[in-house]
């Protein structure tokens, strides 16, 4: 999948993946969703974002985790 709404620019935001044209990290959008915010609430907080940016941020995050090992602590 080609991500047309996500950019990585070393001179902006420390090179973290961001929503194209904004200094909004993909991780921020994903975290807001994980905390229970709706897409409408995120758009209200970030009115410059378009609805289409949010699923692309999720797709990007999922792709970034593919084939990576993340330690899970089990009780």
pLDDT < 50 runs, ≥5 residues: none
Sheet with most strands: 2 strands, antiparallel
What structural class do helix, strand and pairing data support?
mainly alpha
Q: Might you state the CATH topology name?
A: Arc Repressor Mutant, subunit A
Backbone CA Rg: 13 Å
Q: Report the end-to-end length measured between terminal Cα atoms.
A: 37 Å
Write a concise synopsis of the structure shown.
The protein is 39% helix and 5% strand. It is mainly alpha-helical.
Write the layout of secondary structure elements.
Blueprint: E1 6-7, E2 18-19, H1 26-34, H2 39-45, H3 53-65
Antiparallel strand pairs: 1-2
Helix pairs in contact: 1-3
Describe the structure.
- By secondary structure, the protein is mainly alpha-helical.
- The chain has one domain: Arc Repressor Mutant, subunit A (Orthogonal Bundle).
- It is 39% helix and 5% strand.
- It has three helices and two strands; from the N terminus they run E-E-H-H-H.
- A two-stranded antiparallel sheet has the order 1-2.
- Helix 1 crosses helix 3 (53-65).
- The radius of gyration is 13 Å and the shape is globular.
- It starts with 5 loop residues before the first strand and ends in a 10-residue tail after the last helix.
- The model has no long low-confidence stretch (mean pLDDT 90).
């Amino acid at each position: 999948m080609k991500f047309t709404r996500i950019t990585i620019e070393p001179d902006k935001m420390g090179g973290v993946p961001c929503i194209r044209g904004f200094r909004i990290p993909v991780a921020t959008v994903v975290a807001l969703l994980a905390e229970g915010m709706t897409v409408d609430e995120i758009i209200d907080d970030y009115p410059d974002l378009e609805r289409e940016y949010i699923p692309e941020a999720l797709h990007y995050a999922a792709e970034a985790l593919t084939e990576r090992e993340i330690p899970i602590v089990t009780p």
